[in-house]
Amino acid sequence: MRIDRQGTRIAAREAGSGETVALLHATASSGSQWRALFDTLRASWHVVAPDLYGYGETDPWPGTRPFSLSQEAALLDAVLPPGGHPVHLIGHSYGGAVALRFAMEQPERVRSLVLIEPVALHLLWDEAPNQVNRPLYREVRSIASVVARAATRGDYRSAATRFIDYWNGKGAWSRLEPSLQADLARRIPKIALDFWAAMTETSAAADYRGIGAPTLILRGSRSPAPARRIAEIVAESLRRARLQTIEGAGHMLPLTHVEPINAAIAAHLLRCRSEGRHPAAA
């Protein structure tokens, strides 16, 4: 699928029929991140996997106004089927933060949510009474600062090294193929925008109380502490959320633990579809 939104080309994979499931990828990735899940779900669902701004085959953010999660949520809205029918949203990391923003803006459009370590980084700062969160915010802000400085002065490679090693574990960068390293380094300007959007998001945890969709929140036991804590905050904030920890997994769990993650997602979707057909069971 290729659409034009205000002069910007947006790309998405689309297949199948039935209720719509939208898959939102992580920073520095693309819709192809979901290839295995996409192929599994397409037999029973209408699946849409967009490339967010600046990733895959979608054009970069045009810079016509300040960037925010709302801009990515609008991109998602543009690729969804017309008619306003409720959809199932699945988002990983940055894609999870986008899914949260979309669900907050249009709760009636969301049938269910799966949030895999959503990087709603602003929540670590907004939870002011809990001083435990402030060091976690400063931890992730230090990585964001490295990326922002690199985007300004052009030192993309060193920033990409820090970024990849932080989210994937020390030494992860050195294990990548040179061609992939070069591709990731080129994405630093958009990675900086993603950090900006996630850290300057204006919603608060209390704002998520309006989201009534059943939600599965997944996190890895070995993920960075900020990501694990945000998963807890979101689970505490949503009215119908269930938090599940995947033992031994890190932040990139949809790629490193494909089978348990995809099985958990499939079970969640089937449960939500069954509840939709039988309201008394909800």
Could you give a quick summary of the protein structure above?
It is built from eleven helices and eight strands. The chain has helices spanning 35-41, 69-79, 94-105, 122-126, 133-153, 156-168, 178-186, 188-199, 225-237, 253-256, 258-277, and strands spanning 2-5, 8-15, 20-24, 46-50, 87-92, 110-116, 215-220, 241-246.
Description:
The structure is a single chain. The chain has 282 residues and is α/β, with parallel strands linked by helices. The protein folds into two domains: 2-127 and 203-281, Rossmann fold, CATH 3.40.50.1820; 133-195, no CATH class. The chain contains eleven helices and eight strands. It has helices at 35-41, 69-79, 94-105, 122-126, 133-153, 156-168, 178-186, 188-199, 225-237, 253-256, 258-277, and strands at 2-5, 8-15, 20-24, 46-50, 87-92, 110-116, 215-220, 241-246. It has an eight-stranded mixed sheet, sandwiched between helices. Helix 9 links the parallel strand 7 and strand 8 (241-246). The longest helix is centred in the middle third of the chain and has 21 residues, at 133-153. The relative contact order is 0.14. The model is unreliable at 277-282 (pLDDT under 50).
Q: Evaluate the radius of gyration.
A: 18 Å
- The CATH class of the largest domain is Alpha Beta
Separation of the first and last Cα atoms: 35 Å
Overall 3D geometry? globular
Strand percentage, roughly? Answer: 15-25%
SSE succession: EEEHEHEHEHHHHHEHEHH
Strand order of the largest sheet: 1-2-4-3-5-6-7-8
